[in-house]
Amino acid sequence: MDKMWAGRFAKTLDKTADDFNSSLKFDCKMFAQDIKGSIAHATMLGACNVLPQADVDKIIEGLASILEDIKNGKLTFDNGAEDIHMFVEGELTKRIGDVGKKLHTSRSRNDQVALDLRMYVKDELAKIKTLLSELIGVLCDKAEQNLDAIMPGYTHLQRAQPITFAQHLMAYAMMFIRDVMRIDDTVKHMNLSPLGSCALAGTTYPIDRGITASLLGFDGYTHNSLDGVSDRDFCVETLSTLSLIMVHLSRFAEEIILWTSWEFKFMELDDSFTTGSSIMPQKKNSDMAELVRGKSGRVFGDLMGMLTVLKGLPLAYNKDMQEDKEGVFDALETVNMCLTVFTPMLATATVLKDNMLTAAKKGFINATDMADYLTKKGMPFRSAYKITGTIVGDCIAKGKVLEDLTVEDYKQYSELFDGGIYKAISLSECVSKRISQGGTAPSETKKQITYARKFAKIN
Fold first, then answer.
1. pLDDT confidence of 164, banded at 50, 70, 90?
2. Residue 146 lies in domain
3. Residue of 156, 223, 272, 278 marked catalytic
4. d(CA 441, CA 148)
């Protein structure tokens, strides 16, 4: 295929340089967005009387046929094309003749690629948003099934206070809700059409950028043509948003890996989402969770790569910006794949409530409730804290737990103790009385589930 810019040059491009320069092998993903953008551009050219309507109709018909043929496999990409934009334009000219050469009137590849990438990212983020909503729904289902599942809550990975598994799950639901919100914000910021910026300075043709922006579902158009072709903030924002999603998935994956170990045994993953060992027949490995944890590094790397590409670029377009796509495509695909595996892995997992409760009974995680018990009887909290710490230390030395002590034992530490201490430090009581908004009490966790379900349904 002849290069669209070949008229200026006396020599053809070196084969090695041509391969190095070509982006078709990865930007062909944007074929649907490229053709949709071209149809909108042609429609605008007709509406503004830049092209005769008969030519516009012929162009649109040709573009629609190319789109259909690519989708059904009748048309394959020509590796001789420099990129998807040149491939589509070249194929159009083959099909409808010189009229096809009019499509690029008042348009540059610079604003064309900026448009295509925005449209592609928007489409892919919509898919990820749907996957996040599905994951939030599964978290709500699991939480409802485990409102009474008491487990140790941890700080510093040390047993801290009793909570419910339901509340623990809803903490992740809140993270993923914020991820959905970030996607909405990211799309809002990118939802301006760069088409009509042309190479960098705009065009002398009497075009109407508002028409193409409206046809393509944008809120408006970019307000500076230099910025329109050189802005890749939306790529950075997208990669940042995807990176945070992976942070949340990776943290969750880490806990699942811990919970499914023999040391915890709080959860068991379904066989269909685990693997075995080539040498140790007893092994059941949480490989899907481990891969999610590992793939977070890919997405973080994509973000760092994008920032590095952009940091030293003068205005307006530079060929460096061809490097904006592979990292974005990789991150979008990675997050999509991770969510597609993670959600059913969680949905099919078995929660081992008895093991959680057994762990909760160890580690003096009801010590804070003992201090609160004394405080509510009038003792200053710091004094109650010190007495409780002394009791815990003595219990550890004697190999006892708080429930083993008699009322007489307790009274040796303070006369404020009476038989009510046993109810105060019972795990079910410790959980159920934490009724502050967002707390671990089942009554509060139900509110969290209601909120999350409503959010996921709306989104």
1. very high
2. 110-205+216-358
3. 156
4. 9
Based on C-alpha coordinates, what's the Rg of the chain? 30
For residues 398-432, b (16+ Cβ closer than 10 Å) or e, as one string? eeebbeebeeeebeeeeebbeeebeebbebeebbb
Ramachandran angles phi, psi of 163, nearest 5°:
-135, 180
Read off the pLDDT band of 277 (50, 70, 90).
confident
168 as an active site residue: the answer is no
Q: Is the pLDDT of residue 217 over 70?
A: yes
Pairing mode of beta strands 350-351, 192-193: unpaired
Ordered alpha helix ranges (H), 349-417:
353-360, 367-376, 381-398, 407-411
- In 177-238, at which residue ranges do the beta strands (DSSP E only) sit? 192-193, 220-221
Q: Choosing from 261, 277, 428, 443, which is the catalytic residue?
A: 277
Identify whether residues 435 and 319 lie together within a single domain.
no
Residue 193: beta bridge partners?
221
| Alpha carbons 272 and 362: distance in angstroms, whole number | 33
Residue 81: CATH number of its domain: 1.10.275.10
From 48, 70, 105, give the residue that closes a domain. 105
Strands, DSSP E only, in 257-309? 267-268
Domain membership flag for residue 210: no
Place of tokens 């040498």: 279
Asked whether residue 5 is assigned to any structural domain, the reply reads no
Q: If you average pLDDT over residues 23-51, what whole number do you get?
A: 95
Report helix, strand or coil for 164: strand
Of 71, 105, 139, the residue at which a domain comes to its end is 105
**In the annotation, is 277 catalytic?**
yes
In this structure, what CATH number is given to the domain that contains residue 140? Answer: 1.20.200.10
pLDDT at 4 over 70: no
pTM value surpassing 0.85: yes
Within 8 A by CB and 6+ apart from 68, the residues are none
